[in-house]
Amino acid sequence: MERIFGARSVAVVGVSDRPNNLGRYILQNLIDWKYEGRIYCVNPKGGEVLGHKLYPSVSDLPETVDLAVLIIPAPVVPEVVEECGRKGITRVAIPAGGFEEFGKEGVSHRDRLVEAARRHGIRFVGPNCLTVINSRTGLCLPFVPVPPDLPRGGVSIVAQSGGIGLDFLARLRDQNTGFAKFASMGNKTDLDEVDFLHYLGEDPDTQVICMYLEDVERGRDFLRVARDIRKPILVYKANVEPLALQSAKSHTAALANDDAVLDGALRQAGVIRVRRLAQLAGYAKVFSLPPLRGNRVALVSPTGGILVLAGDQCARRGFVFPPLPPSLVEDIQKHLRAGVINISNPVDLGDVHDAESRKYIVDRLLEQDFIDGVIMLLVSQLATREVTTGSIAGLRRNIIPDLAELVRKHGKPIVFSLLATSEVRIKARQKVDFPIFDDAEEAVDAAAVLRDFSLRFPDYGIAAKKPQ
Amino acid sequence: MERIFGARSVAVVGVSDRPNNLGRYILQNLIDWKYEGRIYCVNPKGGEVLGHKLYPSVSDLPETVDLAVLIIPAPVVPEVVEECGRKGITRVAIPAGGFEEFGKEGVSHRDRLVEAARRHGIRFVGPNCLTVINSRTGLCLPFVPVPPDLPRGGVSIVAQSGGIGLDFLARLRDQNTGFAKFASMGNKTDLDEVDFLHYLGEDPDTQVICMYLEDVERGRDFLRVARDIRKPILVYKANVEPLALQSAKSHTAALANDDAVLDGALRQAGVIRVRRLAQLAGYAKVFSLPPLRGNRVALVSPTGGILVLAGDQCARRGFVFPPLPPSLVEDIQKHLRAGVINISNPVDLGDVHDAESRKYIVDRLLEQDFIDGVIMLLVSQLATREVTTGSIAGLRRNIIPDLAELVRKHGKPIVFSLLATSEVRIKARQKVDFPIFDDAEEAVDAAAVLRDFSLRFPDYGIAAKKPQ
Questions:
Q1: 8 Å CB contact of A174 and B305
Q2: pTM of the entire structure?
Q3: CATH classification (class only), B1-125
Q4: pLDDT tops 50 at residue A246
Q5: In chain A, domain spans
Q6: The predicted structure's pLDDT at residue B423
Q7: CA distances from B216 to A130, B197, B200, B205, B210 (A)
Q8: CATH (residue range A1-124)
Q9: Which of A257, B26, B278, B404 is 20 to 30 A away from residue B224, measured at CA?
Q10: Distance between CA atoms of residues B375 and B358, nearest Å
Q11: CB–CB of A243 and B314 under 8 A?
């Protein structure tokens, strides 16, 4: 697998200068992403595309590339795989469709493909998918344009559906969260979710693994591999309802499609199951925070109603609010020179308006041994559109960078939600490298996910880092 | 109640030119919103603020205003209410805080307030809240700036917490959905959720009623009033968990805080319960579509994975996918001159790329008697940022206005989701007066809410209209 993601040379078979040629999109992605390896293109007609010479065949390539990408009609895929084998190429990515998903004829193409691959010990991704991206090396192989400005980071995604994989990348960017590796598996005729999971579990660039799965044939293997991985694994399992379009093929080792059984099995393997596509990216980013080592949180907001509804959600997720000792309350009152403010937990900041005082309170809360983390919820005033000038949530100063600083200082998480229009949130996210949740309930849920993982792996503490 | 929301003259008591004077914010809102009634301001010191003369007292006002707004310290509120009574003013809004929520002394202020109001037959909103907005007349009374460019429409909101009320308005704007009336109830010492619900039930401007409630003391009355209202009532009930901050006062008639009991009671009264704050605005906007008169939907997407996961969600919500008769499939194939496209339901648009063909298919689907509505899910290509030039979801032409047109033509709903970055969605929403959901699951849930309501009220069909 490392030979695929870490390929130092790649040949794209099927590049031409026709408009909408899919191979050219792949080449363009490699160029845009500044792929650090060597690029070769193959087309029997020869010529040149985007400054790259077209070699007439795989055999004509000047070197045995680490990876061949076949974006050619299904019927000719098997013979080109054969050719790759003869050339000594052992890794192939096959975006091309037209195999078993196209009926009987496709099945025969698939069978010939599998035979050719077996004969030469070739392992392959696909067919019928967007294949892979390695954000570190610029190996970007989807046949649709992928903007090269996507943030790099520690979140990797394996998706059975390429469309959903791309949607996930869009959501990650929305959250200003970076990704490490992307895999779209398609028909997964050879390499499947178990192989990708195993690889990402050992991949040093990957800190969080996200998966979108429709069927898991090697269910037992999947659970066994998952159990040994000491990284958060977030799984959205679709195709679980009786009415669902194509039910997974019946197979004794297949992961149950019975929702309750599936739930139990995944939980036992330490997999975090998500039930909304949106949560996949949302939960992934919470792991850029330090571990949440227990249930004892301080719930902080200047809005009474938010404290009430977030309090409900905290209760549902098993969080408790330790009372604050009178000495701490007195301290805070003294510091703020505000005798009338009666701070308890949950902490109503209603009367504390300036960012400096709010920061001081959160600082003192995180300092306490009996507080495992803070859940903080700000509501942006409707009128506050001047985020660009630093004013968020009605504060004269933007408090969010301060929160990021406090998290680093104490090594405890502040799970933060900014209830605001999406415009305000977009701007807020552009300014800080710190997870910002859309909703109070989502923040509490994410805190619970972080806590569960932190308790399972007490030595967990590597934060997913976002370079740049 | 109509005398409050429909007030033709209003006196703001407690306006001054001090910086951060809350009364001045109210005056500024009335000016910004171009309040169509007469505005008076009261301050014992006299003078002028924002071009408005300050009358020394309520008694000095040149007319008996419909509504007095008291933004003055709690201890003096009772005597000013008394003064209002003597002047013949019978409706008062009290944003001022400092009553029972401030302990013993506050309780005595409250008792004196209630006495004074009773003596004069005065009904009042609050205290301790943002009071009301009527978007039609420009009566905008919150003491924080509310941008006057919020879209007007048919959604009204009653919130026990002002902060959550404002957050709801922000979300509605985010969704490009207009609001009619806003009420923040605070301590609801006099007028409470039952009064507001009853009023909005009869208010011709209100097509959808949204409520955020923390406690409902007159539970039986609430359910009785709800039962008689033939408009969607969406309720987020917080403060339901044992750990919650302040549990509602025990009272025989109070709405149960036991979640299951509450759930049953609300359902029997036809109330739609939402469990996430974000859903309140999300579900509200689905009612701008025509009714969904049954379970039979066509599920349409060009992305296989989305069809699978939305298929799951449809199954959970009780939707079915009627098969398409061969004659219809042939028709579509003939029209598209695409013999190879094999359309079934769910409808995979994967091979149908142009907007014109997609529109034709949806048109034909909505035309069928056996289809109650369409759920359509597009995924925006990551690279497609040129929404401004009309390209959404990878289409050369933006299909969303076509969908709005088809909805009008057939009188059946298309519940539409655009999976994309929030930037793309913001732009898409600015272009059309048509609900766009963020997630496939959310779209299916909203479709279920619309269906349940449509089946309960078969004559339902007034779409919430958005003027401008």
A1: no
A2: 0.86
A3: alpha beta
A4: no
A5: 1-124, 150-287, 291-456
A6: 78
A7: 53, 12, 17, 25, 15
A8: 3.40.50.720
A9: B278
A10: 13
A11: yes
Q: Which chain A residue has the Cα nearest residue B425?
A: A422
Regions of chain B with pLDDT less than 70: 242-257, 338-342, 381-397, 461-468
In angstroms, rounded to a whole number, what is the distance separating the alpha carbons of residues A111 and A119? 12
CB contact under 8 A, B312 and A441: no
Label the pairing between strands A272-273 and A297-301.
Answer: unpaired
Q: Is the dihedral of CA B139, B142, B144, B146 positive or negative?
A: negative
Chain B, window 121-160: residues with a beta carbon less than 8 angstroms from a chain A beta carbon: 144-147, 150, 159-160
Distance (Å, whole) CA A299 – CA A375: 5
Question: How far is Cα A231 from Cα B1, in angstroms, rounded to an integer?
Answer: 58
**What's the pLDDT tens digit per position in B353-390?**
788 889 999 999 999 999 999 999 988 765 444 333 33
In this predicted structure, what is the pLDDT of residue A396? 53
**Helical segments of A411-439, H only:** 422-431
Contact B282, B288 (CB under 8 A): no
Nearest by CB to B439, which of A170, A214, A277? A277
Q: Do domains A1-124 and A291-456 have the same CATH topology?
A: yes
Residue A162 in tokens = 């390429």
* Confidence grade of residue A339 (pLDDT, cut at 50, 70, 90): low
Both tokens assigned to A332? 């805070």
State residue A468's pLDDT score: 34
Average of pLDDT values for A159-188?
90
SS3 A437: strand
- How far, CA to CA in Å, does B208 sit from each of A102, B154, B183, B235, B417? 47, 6, 14, 11, 21
- A235: closest CA of chain B, how far (Å): 13
- Cβ contacts (< 8 Å) between A238 and chain B: which residues? 305, 308-309, 312
**Residue A384 pLDDT level (bands cut at 50, 70, 90):** very low
3-class state of residue A373 by DSSP: strand
Class of domain B291-456: alpha beta
For A411-420, what is the mean pLDDT?
Answer: 92
| Separation CA B186–CA A372 (nearest Å) | 33
ipTM here: 0.83
Model confidence pLDDT, tens digit, residues B174-228? 888 899 999 999 999 999 999 999 999 999 999 999 999 988 888 899 999 999 9
Rounded Cα distance between B180 and B161, Å, is 18
| Homologous superfamily of the B150-287 domain (CATH) | Succinyl-CoA synthetase domains (3.40.50.261)
Do residues A213 and A252 make contact, with C-beta atoms less than 8 angstroms apart? no
Q: Are A206 and A181 in contact (CB under 8 A)?
A: yes
Q: CB atoms < 10 A from the CB of B441, how many?
A: 23
